[in-house]
Amino acid sequence: MPVKLSDNYDLSKYVIILTGATDGIGKEMAKFLFGFNPKRLIIPARNKEKGNKLLEYLKSSKGHTDNVEVWEMDLADLQSVKNFANKFINEVGELHMLINNAEIDFDNLNLEKGAYWNPLKGYANTKLMNIIICKELSRMLQNDHITTYSHNPGVILTNISHLNTGFSISTLTINTLARLFGITAEQGATNVLYPALSLENKETGKYYDEGIEQEPNKVAYDEEIAKKLWSVEERFRNIHVGVA
Fold first, then answer.
1. What are the φ/ψ torsions at residue 82 (nearest 5 degrees)?
2. Can you name one GO molecular function term for this protein (predicted)?
3. Is residue 66 part of a domain?
4. What is the separation of C-alpha 229 from the centre of its chain, rounded to a whole number of angstroms?
5. For 180-214, what is each residue's pLDDT tens digit?
C-alpha cells in the first residue's frame, strides 16, 4: 500500500532547501512543504522563468508565497553551487532540512568520466553511489545530531523524458518502464517526504524505496569503498571549484 503524508506537519520553525523543484516530483514536494507552513523554503533554480512559474503555482493555493524564495543556482556548475552556499551561510545561517532532488538525464551521462566510477568497480551504478555517500555522510555527522536518508521515489510519470532527445536504448527503456509501472508525481513526492517528516524515523543513513525502508546492496555497507568514493568526490570537487 502506498505511503501517505499526514495533514498535521508543522514546519513553521524549519528552514528548508529543496533542489529540482521546478518540475516533476520536486514541484509536488514544494507544494507539500509549502502547505506545511515552513519558516523559509528556499528553491535553487537554474532557470529564472521556471522559478517564477513555480512561485505562481504555489501562490495559487494560498494567495501568497511570503515564505518561499527562489535563488539562482546551477547544480551542473560547482562554482554556482559554492556561491549559493556562501550566500546562504551569510544571509540565512540556519538549515533544518536539505532535500537533494534531481532529474536523471540518461542520454547525457558522460561515460568518458570513467575514473569517477572506478572506486565501485563492477558494482557501480548511480543509485548505489547515492546510498553509499549517504551512509558515509551519516557516519561523518553521527555526533552532530544530523540525520541523512537516501531515497528511490519510484518510476515517476513526469516530464523526465524532455531531457532526452533522439532515440536511444536508455530513453526507450525508461519511457517504457514509466508507462508500465509509473506512479504520479504527487505520490513520488510523498514517497520522498514520508521518511523525512515521520516522527518515528530518527535513525540515520537508511535507504527508502517508495517511502519504505529497504536493505540496499551489501556493498553499501563497505566502509572502505565508501571512503574511496568520498575521496574521489572530494578530488572532483576541488578540481572544479578549488578547495572550500
1. -65, -40
2. oxidoreductase activity
3. yes
4. 19
5. 767 899 999 999 999 999 877 678 999 999 999 99
Closest CA to 176 of 101, 106, 100: 106
**Together in a domain, 238 and 117:** yes
And the C-alpha cell for 222? 563497505
Residue that the C-alpha cell 548505489 belongs to = 128
Based on the structure, what is the number of domains in the chain?
2
Asked whether residue 3 is domain-assigned, the answer is no
Whole-model pTM?
Answer: 0.82
Q: How far apart are alpha carbons 126 and 14 in whole angstroms? A: 30
Residue 224's CB is within 10 A of a number of other CB atoms, namely: 8
Which among 80, 103, 126 is the end of a domain? 103
Question: Of the residues 41, 75, 103, which one is the last residue of a structural domain?
Answer: 103
Is the pLDDT at 237 greater than 80? The verdict is no
Residues 28-66 have pLDDT tens digits of 999 999 999 999 999 999 999 999 999 999 998 877 889
Whether 85 and 145 share a structural domain: no
151 assigned to some structural domain: yes
d(CA 229, CA 50): 34
